Structures are given as C-alpha cells and as structure tokens.
Amino acid sequence: MKKLSTLSKIAITGLAGLSFLTACGTKSAEGGSSSNQTINVVSREEGSGTRGAFVELFHVLEKGADGKKVDMTSDKAIVTNSTSVMLTTVSGDANAIGYASLGSLDDSNKILKIDGAEATVDNIKDGTYKISRPFNIVTKSEVSEAAQDFIHFILSADGQAVVEKSGYIPLDNAPTYTAKANSGKVVVAGSSSVTPVMEKLKEAYAKVNAKVTVEVQQSDSSTGIISATEGTADIGMSSRELTDEEKAKGVTPTVIALDGIGVIVNKNNPVSDLTNEQVKEIFTGKTTSWDALSK
C-alpha cells in the first residue's frame, strides 16, 4: 500500500488542481469526474481504530484458510496516518474514496449514503444508518485522583454536552459533575478520531477545574491502548472495541460516545449512494472503476 504522511498534505494541495483536471475527463466543464476513471481507494493505517471498525462493519475483514480474520483492504490503497490527512487526500483527488469519523467531517468532501441512509446522528440513533462504533477511553483498574476526576467530567452531563455539541451521540442519564481533585496532570493518548472531541473536553474541563492539567497526545487506537496498558498514559483513546487479548493485559474500556463512520468522495464526484456490498468490493479491489458501479 502507498503510505501518505502528514507532510504529504503540502504535495496534495499543490497537485489538487492537476488531479482534478486529469480526473474530470470529458465532464470537466460540468465539474464532475468521468465515470470511467479508476477508483483511488484511500484507507487509514494499520492500528487505526477507524480502520478497524470500518473493515469490520463493511465485511472487509474476512476469515482466511486458517480461520483467522484477515484485513482484505486492497494493496493498491493509499494509506493515510490521520483523519486530517484522509480528508485532505480525498478532497484533492476527484476519483478518491475514503472514510472518516462522522464528527470529524466537514464540507470539504461529499458524504455518501449507504444503502439509502444518510450518515446523520438521528439515523445512527434509530439504527437506519448502521455504520457506527463506540468511542472508548481505556484505563487500568486504578488511576490517579486527577485522572479519575477528568473521567468523571467526561461522563457527566457537562462532558456529554460537549460530546453532543461536537457532533457525536452522547450517553443517556449523565450525572452532575463536582470537582474532587485539587492538583495533578493527566496524559490522554491515542486515536486521532477521538482526539478532536477530547481536545474540546479538555478545554471545557479547564473551565470547571483549572487545578488539573490535561495533555492530549494524538496517535492511533492501538497505540493508545498500549500506552494505557504500559502506564505511559493515564487514559488511552480508542475508536474501536478492545480485543480479548488487550483486555487480558489489565485495561478496561469505557464508552464515552457513539460515532458514525462516513464514507466520503470528492465533492465533484457524481456518486451519492452506495450499498454496503459495493463499498466492500471497492475497498477489497474487486471494483476498480466508477463506471463499473452502474453495470
């Protein structure tokens, strides 16, 4: 797979115009991509919670001959190492398709309907849009007083109000928050999908308890879980469920929100709706051109 780092955003931006002209083909005057163009699959890196949830929900994860699950993402996929690079990559390529956390999406890309359902909070709540996953914080059985206080805030009515305002689905019946820690520092590390809402939770928390400092370190879900397990972070962030093996190492996940995964294409792409099966075939490399979707 082709790897694309954060530094590549500069190159993407610079080449966006060229990519657009090349990809638009005979429909460039209309601003749409040509239907016979090769689909450019854009995925997240291994270890990403968003990728883990995506391949599970779209059945890109299949059992191999040995009975173990194998990620069948096309080896021709462009691999991005963060949510921001994913969004930039797709917005700069008229024939790209990718995916990202619903709460992280903006108007730079088109969000596709899946099986006729729009990726909205209401549709996730009522089960109409089925591509959703939990946002978890990961901790050992014992955490510092400061970390516990921040967790109490995240799960409180105040914290869940931040979750909802950020575009995610909050928990029901959240309790009132009362500060109990008078000092300390909390290190939170992991998922780039959870990071944006965690940064907002950090800001809101500072207004109600300035005596505790919170540091948020962005990486990916697997790294966040390892950091919590090894004690290099007080709290890990994961945008996927933990495996039994990870739980066996002494950490426990706590759901702090529910999030959808949006499948995205360039704004100039005429496609607006795909089935779950079509998404699977695109990301496994079975469908490689846009015109094949209409056959």
Q: How would you characterize this protein structure?
A:
- One of its GO terms (cellular component) is plasma membrane.
- By secondary structure, this protein is of the alpha/beta class.
- The chain has two domains: 2-131 and 261-294, Periplasmic binding protein-like II (D-Maltodextrin-Binding Protein, domain 2, 3-Layer(aba) Sandwich); 133-260, D-Maltodextrin-Binding Protein, domain 2.
- Helix content is 33%, strand content 24%.
- The chain contains ten helices and 14 strands.
- The chain has helices at 8-24, 49-57, 83-91, 121-125, 145-155, 157-165, 195-208, 221-230, 244-247, 276-283; strands at 2-4, 40-44, 61-63, 69-71, 78-80, 96-101, 110-111, 113-114, 132-140, 185-191, 213-219, 235-238, 251-265, 273-274.
- Strands 1, 2, 5, 6, 7, 9, 10, 11, 12 and 13 form a ten-stranded mixed sheet that branches.
- Helix 1 packs parallel to helix 3 (83-91).
- The longest helix is centred in the first third of the chain and has 17 residues, at 8-24.
- The protein is globular and about 65 Å long.
- 46% of the residues are buried.
- Residues 6-35 have low confidence and may be disordered.
The CATH class of the largest domain turns out to be: Alpha Beta
Q: Do you know the CATH architecture of the largest domain?
A: 3-Layer(aba) Sandwich
- For the report, how would you describe the main beta sheet? 10 strands, mixed
Order of helices and strands: EHEHEEEHEEEHEHHEHEHEHEEH
- Beta-strand fraction estimate: 15-25%
The CATH topology annotation of the largest domain reads as D-Maltodextrin-Binding Protein, domain 2
Q: Which structural class fits the helix and strand makeup?
A: alpha/beta
Shape: globular
User: Please, how many domains?
Assistant: 2
Q: Radius of gyration, Cα only, in angstroms? A: 20 Å
Low-pLDDT parts are 6-35
- Fraction of residues in helices? 25-40%
CATH-defined superfamily of the largest domain = Periplasmic binding protein-like II
Number of helices: 10
How far apart are the first and last residues' alpha carbons, in Å? Answer: 28 Å
Got a strand count? 14
Rounded mean pLDDT is 89
